[in-house]
Design brief:
Distance between the termini: 18 Å
Enzyme class: transferase
Largest sheet: 9 strands, mixed
Family: Belongs to the Thz kinase family.
Number of domains: 1
CATH architecture: 3-Layer(aba) Sandwich
Strand order of the largest sheet: 2-1-3-4-5-6-7-8-9
Function: Catalyzes the phosphorylation of the hydroxyl group of 4-methyl-5-beta-hydroxyethylthiazole (THZ).
CATH class: Alpha Beta
Radius of gyration: 17 Å
Keywords: ATP-binding, Kinase, Magnesium, Metal-binding, Nucleotide-binding, Thiamine biosynthesis, Transferase
Helix content: 40-55%
Number of helices: 11
Number of strands: 9
CATH superfamily: Ribokinase
Structural class: alpha/beta
Strand content: 5-15%
Pfam family, one: HK
């Protein structure tokens, strides 16, 4: 299935509208380009609806939140919903402040999202009103482990049913869930947390892959998450081999996204159906 998605994305070169944060916007654009998508970053209320109309998907990321962009996000989201375009929501830092959490919930109320992707603390902040987020990072008390895996899967399925969205909880173990099926993914590496933007980049490339894989939303999301994690592993191995650092890791991560072959991905993914 995902082999077809990789082929389709090369042929269609989907246009992805990102309303994202200015810390990682360049990396998000380069990541989309690396996987054969085409990024456009537009957040002014005067053009977001027009831009959404010409695009194939929408990515909303609240990393550098302000009232102006919330208005633009809602306008773009409603237009995308009207056009039946897939929408990815990255609730960066939800739970860190009342404004951030309230704004994320406002977006959930006004927009029907296809995929909601965040760390476990961010997702819990939206689903059960917790405030354990540490800045933009998950609380150590929320980390997904093999011991609490079943509990987290049950939680993710319930939130998927409530939102009618695929829930992607990313971390040391990634959980991708619909209301009645879930995947656990064990790809990735600790170096991915040493640079800013790997989560934002993942949300961005989800916009590209889901634009061509909307008919198999759960599986497309799961394999895109696995792809990102495996590319992180490849980049990490390269900096170890060359005794290099995190700046090189960032470059090699984008290199891996742009050169990965399906046969290598198939051999490298670590994914279980739950």
């Amino acid at each position: 299935m995902f082999e077809n998605i990789l082929n389709k994305i090369k042929l269609r070169n989907p246009l992805v509208h990102c309303i994202t944060n200015y810390v990682t916007v360049n990396d998000c654009a380069n990541a989309i380009l690396a996987v054969n998508g085409s990024p456009i970053m537009a957040d002014d209320i005067k053009e977001v609806e027009d831009i959404t109309t010409i695009c194939n998907s929408l990515v909303i990321n609240i990393g550098t939140l302000n009232e102006r962009t919330i208005t633009s996000m809602i306008a773009a989201g409603k237009m995308a919903n009207n056009l039946n375009h897939p929408i990815i929501f990255d609730p960066v830092g939800a739970g860190a402040s009342k404004f951030r959490t309230d704004s994320a919930k406002k977006l959930l109320k006004n927009i029907s999202f296809s995929v909601i992707r965040g760390n476990i603390s961010e997702i819990k902040a939206l689903a059960i009103n917790t405030s354990t987020t540490q800045g933009v990072d998950a609380s150590i008390n929320d980390i997904v482990t093999k011991d609490n895996l079943d509990e987290v899967v049950k939680f993710a399925k319930k939130f998927s049913q409530e939102t009618n969205a695929i829930i992607a909880i990313t971390g040391a173990i990634d959980i991708i869930a619909s209301k009645d099926k879930a995947y656990a993914i064990y790809n990735g590496c600790s170096t991915m947390s040493k640079i800013t933007g790997t989560g934002c980049m993942l949300s961005a490339i989800l916009g590209a892959f889901i634009a061509v894989g909307q008919s198999s939303l759960l599986e497309t999301t799961a394999y895109t998450v696995a792809l990102m994690g495996y590319c992180g592993e490849l980049a990490s191995q390269k900096i170890r081999n060359r005794d290099e650092g995190t700046s090189s890791f960032r470059t090699y991560l984008i290199d891996a996204l742009s050169t990965i072959k399906y046969k290598d991905l198939k051999a490298g993914v670590k994914i279980d159906v739950l």
